[in-house]
Amino acid sequence: QVQLQESGPGLVKPSETLSLTCTVSGGSISSYYWSWIRQPPGKGLEWIGYIYYSGITNYNPSLKSRITISVDTSKNQLSLKLSSVTAADTAVYYCAGSTVTTGAPYNWFDPWGQGTLVTVSS
Amino acid sequence: DIVMTQSPDSLAVSLGERATINCKSSQSVLNSSNNKNYLAWYQQKPGQPPKLLIYWASTRESGLPDRFSGSGSGTDFTLTISSLQAEDVAVYYCQQYYSTLYTFGQGTKLEIK
Fold first, then answer.
1. Cα separation values, B26 from A20, A102, B21, B30, B31, Å
2. A56 touching B, CB under 8 A?
3. B51-55 and B103-104 as β-strands: parallel, antiparallel, unpaired?
4. A69-122, pLDDT tens digit by residue?
5. How close does chain B come to A18, measured CA to CA in Å?
6. In whole angstroms, what is the distance from residue A16 CA to residue A97 CA?
7. What is the per-residue burial (b if ≥16 Cβ within 10 Å, else e) of A17-38?
8. How far apart are CA A5 and CA A96, in angstroms?
9. CB B90 within 8 A of CB B108
10. What are the tens digits of pLDDT across the range B33-88?
């Protein structure tokens, strides 16, 4: 069973770069498209972007100028970098997978990591 | 972007009664080439990530109690819980994957009356 674990600083200063890592265990990183999704406290879900192990990426246009998603297949990890953060970027950040066996990227998100709260504040 | 709009925003239902959550997409998410609706439903409890319930609009995830069902096609979809249990208290989200600019509904908070 594939498990995901997000990690990274819980506090980032305004204008700096948010950096998070998601470690994949229990399955092949090449079997999924990997997305980052965020959820501001008390609010809904926003898809940020995805990456496939081959390096194919797709980003939400609303965030595209500030996002870099990368993958390290040797470490079974994916990473998110979000630059020039503001308080509006405060959220729980999730990584989630979409399995290629059921048609990714045109399919649902499962599994999900537990999420990590990132607060943007000075 | 495909905008997903859920109704109601919140819902209080008595234990054992039916709960119905609606989701409307701003454009059809039905793929005519395979006759599949590219829509999923998730359940999120406090402090937890979303949990996949239903995909292809009506296919239940393995192990999901059969009191949960999804229906609809095109632009209008429904998640129904036939007999509400205490453990069903959560926020429910719909999500379209017809476009890879994936979008979610704003969520419906389900409570016990």
1. 33, 25, 17, 12, 15
2. no
3. unpaired
4. 999 999 999 999 999 999 999 999 999 999 988 888 889 999 999 999 999 999
5. 20
6. 27
7. ebbbbbbbeebebeebbbbbbb
8. 10
9. no
10. 999 999 999 999 999 999 999 999 999 999 999 999 999 999 999 999 999 999 99
